[in-house]
Records
---
Amino acid sequence: MAGIVRTLAAAVIACAALALAGFVTPNWFVLVATLALSKGLVALGIVALMRGGLVSFGQGTFYCAGAYAAGMAMRSFGIGDAALLVALGAIAGLILGIIIAPLLAGYRGIFFATLTLALSMIVYGILNKTYSLGGSDGLNLHAPSFFGYHPARSQNASYALFLFTSLVTVIAAALCRIHFDSVRGLLSHAARDNEIRVEYLGASVRWINGINFVIAAVLGGVGGALSALSLGHIDPDFAFWTTSGEFVFLAILSGYVSVTAVFVAAILLELVRSYSSQYFPNTWQGALGVFLLLIILFLPGGLGSLALRLRPRGAKPARAPAENPNDRAP
Amino acid sequence: MKFRRFAAALVAGAGVLGSFTTSATAQDDNVFKLAFVAFLSGQAAESFGKPAVQAATAVIDALNAGSLPKPYDKVGFGGLKIEVHLIDEAGGATKQVEELRNAFERDHVDAVLGYVSSGDCLAVSPAAEELKKLLVLFDCGTPRIFEENQFKYVFRTAAHGAMDNVAMARYLVKRGIKVADVGAINQDYAWGQDSWKDFKGSLAQLEPEAKTKVELWPKFGAGQYGTEISALLQENPALVYSSLWGGDLQAFVLQAAPRGLMKDRVVVLSASDHVLPPLGNKMPDGVIIGARGANGQFAEKSPINDWYVAALATAYPGLIPVQPHYRAAQGLLGLKTAVEKAMAANGGKKPNSEEMAAAMVGIEWDAPPGHIKLALGDGHQAIQSNAAGRTKWDPDAKMVRLVDIEHFAAECVNPPPGIKSADWIAQGFPGAKCD
Amino acid sequence: MHDPEKWKPIFRKDQALYVQRTSVKLAAAILIDGVIDASWLFIVAVGLTLVFGVLNILNFAHGSLFSVGAYAAASAVGWYYGGDLGPPFLGYLLMLGAAVAVALILGPLLERGVLRFFYRRDEVVLVLVTYALFLILEDATKLIWGAESYYASEPYALLGNVSFFGLSYVGYDFALIGLAVVTGLLLWFSLNRTITGKIVLAVIHDREISRAMGVNVTRVFAFAFTLGIFLAALGGAFTAPKISVQPGIGVTVILLSFAVVVIGGLGSVEGAAIAALFVGFARAAAIHLVPWAELFIVYLVMALVLAFRPEGLFRRMSARKI
Amino acid sequence: MTALLETIGLQKAFGAVIAASDISVAVQRGQTLGLIGNNGAGKTTFINIVTGHLKPDAGRVMLDGKDITGLAPRQVRRDGVSRSFQIPQVFTGLTLDQNLLLALAILRKEGMSSWQPARSDVRTAELDDLLGRFRLRPYREQTIAVLPGGVRKLVDVAMAVTHQPKLLLLDEPTSGVAVEEKFPLMDVIMRAIEGTETTVLFVEHDMDIVGRYADRVLAFSAGRIIADGEPAAVLSNEEVQRYVTGGAA
């Protein structure tokens, strides 16, 4: 139980630290950080999948579902409270996840990745033709309220949203940490390591992956809803493959060891992107590409592995299996 | 051990912050920082981004040199030198919102001028409004921006898309072109969908007998239209309408012309003047062209237009100016007018967003394409005159000339205040003044 | 925004279809358009599938190499016809040469210079690596060729027109079909009837065993990747005459050829051929019968195929043994 | 009383290769069976069919009179059939503790908690006992990847014997181990499961080991059972000597 207490303590500290950081940093950074944390949540979902050995290239599906759930609730039913909207985003992700998980739980490696990608592109195509949801131009959302509080000044609004996002993020992150450290979390690790043994021990790899997938879906929905609130705009690009690709990159960049690393990675990527597009408006994409390459080359284990090196000793986590499922068999 | 890792993360985070909190620089009161946003990469770079940047550079250089004719002869904006920050519009609406916020909050620009894509315009407008900073849209077409929202700090210095297609339909009437049936090919995203809806609606009002035979919806950026062309040839409509633009349109023409789709048939390309220079003689004669305003060859003689054409010719020898050149210049001059009006009101000091936004409401100014007026959306949305004409290859000048040109007054092709353009079209253009 | 008017005519057409257009003409059009579409798709996709088969890399930069091929061909053709330096038909050879040049320069450069550092990483990580390459190449082409549009339309007009069932087609498109068939046959032959090909197949089948049996896998990788790039560039070079070559033309190509490869089965040459036709016909049928579905028909087909054959039409899952 | 395990006319072919033809065996509780036969004789196939890794083309597998034919390995496991592997199937990325922890946790009802931290679970008496029986205490903190083959073998078996399986199938428990280690290894294993209700069935090439530990031997050849009975009897069977032991013994 000590582990849980530590995690919760860390969570409280994190909340305080974030609140403070948001207070001392300039508004533009608060805005960037809010979006980064929201995207980080989606990537955290991929991390949950990665621990089971799967990587989804279609998390845009759930990101989009969460965003549009929040958007529709706001526009059609006039729901304006952030907490409610995010809850709806989570539910949207949950439902979609529960529907899709059984279809995908049987697949592995690149097949899983491509199938998720195909699904997200279908969602993208359908949204582009759904004129009632603004078609390809999408919809605008107005600023949310927070448990009844309507911020007047834009500074307050962005800080309030940042605080709220931080709260949601930290809670989600703490829950994930606890889950990852739990016996069931360890089982995901084991399933990536050796499916045959897991089955022979009496557990179902399908179920393990299915549950991880649903977790990822919910996180995707939450992240989508939060992003929608911080952007004030949603459009089908939320489901486009480049969006999903960005989440995968975040997950790879952070690695699956540390939960905190996911959000550090998210903020880092946002900063790199915005600064490279400020200083090289004509070649920012290339700059981003180079950054990507270097990270993957020099941080195979992700940022998390950096933090790992700070650790004295103890249970080393598994190396990422460098083969496809077929090779994994002895 | 989690603490260790966690602390490390926090430290790292703090470090990152530290390095950026410093980036807030003091504002310079003799410089007007202007962020200019256009596609520098991706599918719209060639057709819109590049020309828009060319135009902005030429005009701003001239403004800083104070070499424009009256009433634009003041240096920069009311004496403030203009400093431009280029931003690439590629990368999706999400990125644009972030970049807009960074431009205002981090780089402390005084105003943002830009945006070609309607999706981006819709996305960034609320962000600017939330920050209470001046945002001027110069190109994007969707009417939704001011018909579905009310903004205080957002303006659009060019007419919205409805006029492009109303003008096309009116051109058919004015030229007595009667067609029995219509085939359409438009990209399957908001621009193509809205354009076709407007043209179809306008035609239903003006030439009710024209029936829609086939609607094709290629993907944006498809580049290959063989099958669509076959479908059109098979349906064989008397008129082919398309709102394709840029590389897609060039590819479509390259593939359609050899197969005879554009022969003995009325072809209407609602926003296509910008593909004439690259296509040259590969563009068949007699195609009906729109330029989203009296831009490029449609522009009528005026001091500012004469100056502009000359200025571009010296800056970029051999350049044939097209719509993005005109719409960008139009936006810059509109902003200049607003800033100088604000300075006149506040006693000549550098105006803040509030003053500029207040000053800009409902302004009128003369731009290369003609007289522009912020008449719609409570004085935030411009209307302007529009024109259409037919292509004619001029072998001596080695360029496509536009002939049989018809001009349409702003009030003739734009809705009056207080009515959504879709309804205005559906109700048969109530209150349209077409002299 | 929602506009029922937009849908009505489509549905009226659908009803009308069975009555009025269930004609040979329509079927023929779908067939021809489908094959033409499939031809360039195949050339590009087979390169992608080959690279995956051998190196286990799903190369998202494939589309950029398509654009580079298009740019190279457009420049070469422009220069050739600009100063009309010789018999027009040599233009085709020039386009071929452009593709070869691109492959010989970029193939080794990317494989030796970048990719090899990432071998033995997870497939999905490699997808990201190539995505990074895609971003870099997109900007690189922009730096080299600028944002203007390039044309190479002379070769397009060279072969005149042919008409089938009252529809006029450009002869060049049929030449493309020929090119695709020849490419396919050559590839099949060299894979199945030559030593090198057999070695490549062996590596595709099992990298480790091949290495154990003394195959110089490294060389095979470089060779296969260069060949893959050549096919991408070839596709771009021979598409160039039909389009305006300018930034961004690679993006759609990636997604389409990606879909084809996944449908056909990653790493399967014959699969790519069948899938290209599959996709070609699906698109042609959609455009002729239900035009509003064109946007996502390909992904729909893709999801359906994967739902029933997750490994694609042609790839057999190797069974796990204990 | 019904046999613990009874197979009736098992058939399995891989293409042209007959891996099992009409395998009918009845195993009584408490027996210790040795399976012998040269490679490809069908020993592992037999185990794979019994544990549900392979579905037989024909025939049935009965456990305590219950038909378990074609059930998935995890279901068969829940019915009390467990196995080890010729190549140890362990979680090479996890520590030895974690491996056994999972083996213990999975079949326990409250075992699969999303809350209970894996670490705090580790020092339970159950785990400690298992470590003790298999002489694994020294390695408990180490990642499997760094452990020698013999230890992995033990871990593989240890993971199989949690929750007292009724039937334990050991696929070549001493293969890949130095000759002098074979007997000690086998001793550890057999002692570890001593006193439990577990019935053991092991595949072995070393006839001395078979003679020492088995009280019944099944000789496989080309997918069929060519001899079945007392070790001495089977090993002296000349067909067995011709096809399996190659005149040894």
---
Amino acid sequence: MTDILCKTQDLKITFPHRLGDFTAVHGFDMEVRRGEIVGLIGESGAGKSTIGNAIMGLLSHPGVVSGGRIELEGENLVDLSDTAMARLRGGRIGMIFQDPMTSLNPLMTVGDQLSESIAILQDLPLAQARQMAADRLDGVGIPDAASRMGQYPHEFSGGMRQRVVIALAMAGDPDLLIADEPTTALDVSVQKQVLDLIRSICVERSLGVILVTHDMGVIAETADRVYVMRYGKLVETGPTAQVIHQPTQQYTQDLIAAIPSIDHREDRFRNPAKKTGEIDQWLLQGHKGEGSGDYVTASALTKDFATKKKSFWGKAGSFRAVDIPGLSIKRGEVLGLVGESGSGKSTLGRMMTGLIPPSSGSVRYGDHGLMTDVRTRAARKALRRDVQVVFQDPYSSLNSRMRVDHILAEPIRFHGLAEREETPRLVGALLERVGLPADSGRKFPHQFSGGQRQRICIARALSVRPRFLLCDEPTSALDVSIQADMLALLMELRRSLGLTMLFVSHDLAVVRQVSDRVAVMKQGQIVECRAAEALYDAPENEYTRMLLETAPRATGHENTQNMRRAT
Amino acid sequence: MSKNYIAPLVAALAVSTALVAPAQAETLRIASQGDATSLDPHSHNESFTNYFLANVYEGLVARDKDFEIAGQLAQSWEQVDAKTWRFTLRDGVSFHDGSVFAADDVIFSMDRALSETSNFKHVLASVESYSAIDDMTVEVVTKAPNPILLNDLLDLMILDKQWSEANGAAMPINLQAEEKAYSATNANGTGPFQVVSRAQGEKTTLAAFDGYWGDAGNVTEVVFTPINNAATLVSALLSGEVDLVMPLPLQDIPRVENGAGVKVVSSAEARTMYIGMDQWRDQIIESPVEGNPFLDLRVRQAIAHAVDAQAIIDRVMQGQATLATQYLMDKVNGYNPDLTRLEYSVDTAKSLLAEAGYPDGFEVTMDCSTDRYVNDGQICQATVSLLARVGIKVNLIAQPKAQFFPKVVAPDFGTSFFLLSWTPSTMDALNVFQNVLGTRDLENGKGAWNISGCSVPEADALAAEAAVTMDATAREKMLQDAMALMVEDVCLVPLHVQQLVWGAAENIDVVQHPTFEFPLEYFNVN
Amino acid sequence: MYFLLARLLQATIVMLCVALVGFLVFQFVGDPVLSLVGQETSVEDREALRESLGLNDPILVQYARYVVNAVQGDFGISYSFNRDVSEMIADRLPATIELVMLSGVLSLLLAIPAGIYTGIRRKGGIAQTIMALSVIGVSIPSFLLGILLILVFSVWLNWLPSFGRGDVAVVLGFRSSLFTWDGLSHALMPAAVLCLFQLGVILRLIRAEMLEVLRTDYIRFAWARGLPGGRVYFRHALKNTLVPVVTAIGLQLSSLFAFSIITERVFQWPGMGSLLLHAIGQSDIPLLAAYLIFVGLVFTISNLVVDAIYVLIDPRIRHGAL
Amino acid sequence: MLERIRSDFWYELLNSPVTVVSAVIIALMIIGCTFAPVFAPHTPFDPATISIMDNNMPPAWADGADPRFLLGTDLQGRDVLSAMLYGGRISLQVGIGAVALSVVIGMIVGLVAGYFGGMTDAVLMRVAEIQFAFPPILIALLFNGILKASLPADVFAQAAVPIMILAIGLAGWVQFARIVRASAMVQRGQDYVTACHAIGLPTVTIILRHITPNILGPVLVLAMLQIAVAIVTEATLSFLGLGTPLTEPSLGALIQIGSQYLFSGIWWVVIFPGIMLLVMVVAFNLVADWVRDYLNPRLR
């Protein structure tokens, strides 16, 4: 096969450690041809990024290629000297990093950075390089590129920055492009555009692309062939469609099965098996019978944030993060709140739970009345007991200096829900209820995996016997398989304990799985709010439709399928 | 800092400095631990300042090379009668600004010395009146016959009337006041040297005054640099950056003696160190003890016995001092050779204390300067540990002279136990009685430095008589007897007479006076 | 420029507060009346004096008066020198300035390259040595170092003068001892002592910043783009390193002034520092107060300069993005 | 896993012999100085036991030495070794005391400013900035100077150590306030704090039980560095004559006295205290550096 651009043979990468070496990748084989996009997918820790870095010769200390070959057009990169390797970078191999916000030097204009790369890689005089740079920027779809050359990275939006990054990576016209999670930090709408850009570049320049990602959707949208990885080993490979639709390996099957569908609500989430831990009675204690009606109602709610004032004497401006006429959640209902980053969904969520005060408008709780009326210490305590939160980042949401049992015992003791002596038993029971061993309380948060931490967070939320739970992107930081379990757990708890929930997420698929009703937010406003099924199947609002359109589907889009056939 | 980076530069500098050295042969570079506090000859009465200014200003009389009193601005004088002195002024003398010296300048200066803000009233304490007979003659009438009028007049510096009045310096600087003073930074005298530049605490440059009436040495320029760090002081001398160091820190004597091109010059100084004890308060201050132990003669004797002055001389003073038997050095007129010092004996001291009712001693606070006398701080510490052995617990407050003196001198006399010393500038015992030993009588300017407030009326009487006795031998006898009385009463505990020790470059001739004067006109650079 | 205007406003406030402290010290440490008249003055006379001095006015009025005078460079009269405080400062300032500048420049010249080097080759032997030395540098008390230098270079080797300021020459209207060999030879040791501490601090800071920056994505991306080492280090890393370093250097300037006090004492350098020590020794309050305000001024100005430099290096500040 | 972390600590520590040595030195010095009365062969602060007759004795190994005085005696006949131990005690007292004071003030100000932000923050930080206008050593110097000018001499002499602690402590709090504020602001943004709000915990509890433990790391590092600085500052003040009284000298005062005899062949009175001071400070710096790197693994 002559047109094989890059291949790895029995690639082995180890990170030496005094307590025994850790092998991140063992025996990995891969081929990349010109003009094709090869997807490299796996969950966190699968070693996929490591392979990208290895090909680039930028393994992070102390990692080393401990075996096998990396070939670029027959030349083995493994035994190349650093200087030789350095010459390959940019010229033969380009790379795109995950976060466009941090990939660019904040103190240099975009034009300078690009023309610098071009001048060096194609050794051209700077003037010429600048000229070329402008064209390149234009090429990656940056409007009136020439004038934006003089601007600094912070003046570009996320998507635009990623385009600049791509232009930079392409500055030396490499043969191979490694894209490491190129769209993970971007909104779905933008994500689509960037992927399309990569795709088109790949086609035009018959470029080999390695697309490293954790998102099956992205693969399905973009890749021609896919390599599925787990624990540094190759699990399965083949043409994308085949791997997705007839996976041969168990792991792949589970992986794909775990991906929540955006097109229908799966039954396991709609009515999950109702478990009852012995703690449920305790959790349900002191709940007045479920009346009907709204649990919480927000009316004419707005939130303004002050913005930096531009002129010295000028007034500090403010921008309206949230502005909604009203929103209410029925008892026992799960309301999904979707929107792109900066749409104000988290702010709204936090206002609904009283974590941040609204600029105007009011929030009324069925059991507690207007939040503004909740003044006395006792009343506030009661409210705080009923309303709890589960956060996105399982790492920052637990106090790393506190042992888990303290984290769980503190709220129980604070609200006087149990005597000192019975608290430990309750803590154990709670942990078991959320699917952790009862004795995990003696450990510290950093000794748990992301999923386990998220379970601890849920346990903490439950520990005060809440009625209303705000889930703020609870699964966004988790791997797909774990995400599914987490959603299942939440749904099960909701059913068993009859919780009311506000579920905030940017992921339409996830929201669909859990929500009875869904509200779509855009720039602080709710553009559409209807029963989930109705909204997904027949979106009324233009924006909603666009979101649903661009959302990547593991099954792949009809139109992209066509597009690929066309090339 | 990388060494090879500076080395060449350093070398170059070494050469360059070496080259310029001989060019300034006639310049005398003096480093002293203190600086003259002011250029006004009537404000700060502090010996270094006085003797520094004595090179710029002149008095009617002054000590010559051999330490004899001789005419300076006074050509000659005669005693019309016991009380009346007539001075014939030297003519052809001009001030540094060129104006001619005459009688009115003398009268003006005497007025100025007696004015409210002056600290030199004492020099004319014995004077009834003074007047100008003519342009070149001044007559001084004393209240009573004064055998040592000339000695008194040594410290009276003469300023130029016109210059002073023109520059608003008609009055001496008021040390209390926060006010500008021209005379603090400018001088216009008749002396052999005139002030070229003055940066207090930094550098003062004098130049030989070519219009000088007398003959001066070959020194054309004098550069004064105060250096307060002893180590720096010596290193400056050894590295040839200065030609004269005064005083030379005792601990560095051996080094200078062995040093190439430098020498140690030393002679006895008329400064007697002593410990003072509060004898005028009923309750001593800054001490828990009831009443005032020092009122008891036995306690004072005990302290004299307990303080091993010889050890202090040998150890603290490196032998650069002689044991003091009384409050004078032997060269001073009125020294009593028969007196001896109470010998060092812890037992005697203890038993005396026991008799006095302090078998376990007592606690007292001692005030001490750290930068005024040679090793003053260390002397005090030695005293503290010596007294500790007889059970007297001493809390030492050692502080710079700037804080020390305001605390202990008039009007507060804010101390009950202290280290001090005195130099009779007149080289006559009477000066000591008038300032240090005589019963305190501030109105008549007597006993202003009698900080311990001791009082022996018989001694006072003898001193008073001596003050008006013209017969030298009889007078000396009186002074000696008076001194005997004071020593017997242990008014103060005498420690030692310190040596005047300077370090100088080989090629410098200096003249040392027991009073620490440094008359630069007698110095020479070879 | 909004950013700088705001800073200027802050600076003014800072100075006013500093002046307040100076004023309080000036006014209440030691009764100014007592320092003006002898003990024997009668109570009535003192009252009269208080009145005439306006010491009975409301405190704010007095403060205002003090500030106004200070702005006109009138800090009262030193009672140990019987001269205008401002005059005295003016006399001593040049000496200190030249010392501070010489050592400041020295430390920067040495610290920046060394810092970058140790940042890039942090495991290297030379780097390790430099770091070890820098620890000593920041640790050794400057007075101790000064004494040792004198011992070695003045007494043993007799290469350099041990005290004082050398001959002064005028170049381009600037009077400084740095323009003469003699002057330089005098300034060298004090400057070295003063420089060493700063050197250590700045060097370590630059190194730390360098390490931080080299770890950032945009540097990794720069490598991935195939930029040569030199460009990555000096064009991309260094500039980003400088932002925090500049602040620190700004701060160091005022600490240079502070440490010059010690150096000046050890080397008999006739500058502000020895003046301050004299003032303390004499409890010369007007002088103390003035010095206080002076250092405040130095700091405030250096900070303004720093801010200005910021605006130059960091576009994000220019655009109010930070 | 927890064991891993702890063993990591020892592993890293033992991998840096310099640090181990420094730590040991610090330990020894602290013990030696705190129990100076026990270890010191003489009691240099008790004049009764000092004899002027055995002053200026060279160290034991030099000729003309007296075996009673291992490192010789000073001009007062004080045993240099004992004087160093007692002086070192003062230096450590001042160093640690002053830093403790700074930490307390800095923590309070920093936490309040960082947690509540807004106006409180603005005001507090402006104050801090003003104080920052003055290098700590200068503040301590002026503070001491002004007190010396206004207090009666004996009071000042008696209270020398507390005054010094006060001066240096008050001079040093700003840096602590700054880093505490910075990290408090970071912590405040963390979800676990929001979770505490959600639970309804009172602010004080949140600050003390949750935020404070999370910001101690940097404070610890700075504290160690500051102890070194404080010791040097104390020594410097004493050297400038604003510090401890002649009869009870700290290390700095010993060096100041000794420096007068630097060229007089009596080198031991300045060299030994000098070395001790230097070693003490270097040791603190080295340990602090190591702890910083340890707490910030990315630097490894």
